[in-house]
Design goal:
By secondary structure, the chain is mostly helical. It has a single domain, classed as Fertility Inhibition Protein O, Chain: A, Domain 1 (Orthogonal Bundle). It contains 5 helices and 2 strands; from the N terminus they run ααααββα. A two-stranded antiparallel sheet has the order 1-2. A hairpin with a 5-residue loop joins strand 1 and strand 2. Helix 4 packs across helix 5. The longest helix has 39 residues.
Length: 142
């Protein structure tokens, strides 16, 4: 399904190049109700796949950033049609913040996991005994 949605985004970008952009950094907020406009203008595209494509399109950081900054919404022809409401700006900022916090938490969890594994390896390393006890251990890079 995901690959179908990516293909739909490419198709939308070909048909409406002023509205849809394959590169996330160029994306602008879409008008409310654009799904109905698309369904009427492109009946050959499966509605379920179209909904998934729009979801993937609008959840990118660049799209949410554009919404949070208050860029105007555009229609299928690329014309600015309406302002973004304060509620939508706040929601976009909230989602961006949540995504940032989630990424930060994931990075911290990976760091903690690496540290725990290193400590575990240190604990499991055999302690030298006898004449070799005073010599340093060699760590070989593999």
């Amino acid at each position: 399904m995901k690959t179908d949605a990516v293909a739909v985004i490419r198709t939308l970008a070909e048909r409406w190049p002023k509205t849809f952009f394959p590169k996330a950094k160029k994306r602008k907020p879409l008008k409310v109700g654009i799904l109905e406009d698309l369904t009427a203008a492109a009946p050959d595209i499966n509605r379920k796949t179209l909904r998934l494509a729009l979801r993937m399109y609008t959840i990118t950081d660049a799209y949410l950033f554009a919404c949070s900054k208050g860029h105007k919404r555009i229609d299928l022809n690329g014309n600015e049609v309406e302002e973004i409401s304060e509620k939508d700006k706040a929601r976009a900022s909230e989602i961006l913040g949540a995504k940032k916090n989630k990424a930060k938490a994931r990075a911290n969890a990976q760091k903690d996991r690496r540290e725990r594994l290193n400590k575990k390896e240190e604990a499991e390393r055999p302690v030298p005994k006898g004449v070799n006890a005073s010599k340093p251990l060699l760590k070989l890079k593999v």
